[in-house]
Amino acid sequence: METFESYRPLLFSIAYRMLGSAMEAEDIVQEAYLRFQSAGQVQSPKAYLSTVVTRLCLDHLKSARVQRETYIGPWLPEPLPTGDSAFPEQVAGLSESLSMAFLVLLESLSPVERAVFLLREVFDYDYAEIARIVERDEATCRQLFSRAKKHISDSRPRYTSSPEEHNRLLASFLQAAEQGEMNSLMALLAQDVTLWSDGGCKVRAATRPIHGREAVARFLLGIRRFAEGRERVELMNINGAAGFVLRAADGRPLYVFTLETGSGLIRALRVVGNPDKIARFKPPE
């Protein structure tokens, strides 16, 4: 048990990035534990457990792909509370690879490309280890990594913000939204800003991405009016960066917001309202 627990943060980190779901990642890690318990003497626990978790994720993504193709509206990863997290062991080694923007980019890779890229780029496995885990030869793994890395590099946001600038923009955004100031809100948004909202057909959300500062501002003020009089905002660290949770008066999470910022403007917003995905943002009882 002690041996397994020492690898739990790594296993969760791999599974969460592979699946974009903390809940599903926890299930995968638990299944890996059960297999480890029944495996008898294991020469290299890290190699064994990494292989089990990665292959379970690859199998899971085959069925998940079908589900996501029929998902109503944009599909977004499950946001993860970080910083003062209730799961500090699961978010060890926080990095840019935990951001919502990065997780969304990973979705554009094939499952095997995603596994190879993560194991090499994020977790620093060598190609011999990766080849064994994904059951490909080393030359193929090098090709898969090169292709995946180019795609990720080409698709990454051109602009970045320091944590200080990001926090300043978030504070100004919340002030403008609270006051219902359309012009002030628009001034914070890039002209080509995009907003994605994931309601899972269970709560109010846009079924398509919203593009452009005016359209995005109107949608955001619409959310404010929808929740007006019964909401409160809680700032928190989400996937390694400052974001916020819009809560009902009774503390229930209504929406979890993450922002992508750069060059003094908000470049993208992702809003998750699907109650299945934001359950871990419930206040402690």
Overall description:
Strands 2-1-6-5-4-3 form a 6-stranded mixed beta sheet. The two termini are 29 Å apart. The chain folds into 2 domains: 154 residues, Butyryl-CoA Dehydrogenase, subunit A, domain 3 (Up-down Bundle); 119 residues, Roll (Nuclear Transport Factor 2, Chain: A), CATH 3.10.450.50. It has 10 helices and 6 strands.
Do you know the CATH architecture of the largest domain? Up-down Bundle
CATH class assignment of the largest domain: Mainly Alpha
Mean pLDDT: 89
Main sheet strand line-up: 2-1-6-5-4-3
Distance between the termini: 29 Å
Structure annotation, total helices: 10
Order of helical and strand elements = HHHHHHHHHEEHEEEE
CATH topology of the largest domain: Butyryl-CoA Dehydrogenase, subunit A, domain 3
The dominant shape is globular
Q: Give me the count of strands.
A: 6
What's the number of domains? 2
Strand percentage lies at: 15-25%
- At the fourth level of CATH, the homologous superfamily of the largest domain is PhyR, sigma-like (SL) domain
Content-based structural category: alpha+beta
* Biggest sheet features: 6 strands, mixed
Low-confidence residue ranges: none
Helix content: 40-55%
Radius of gyration: 20 Å
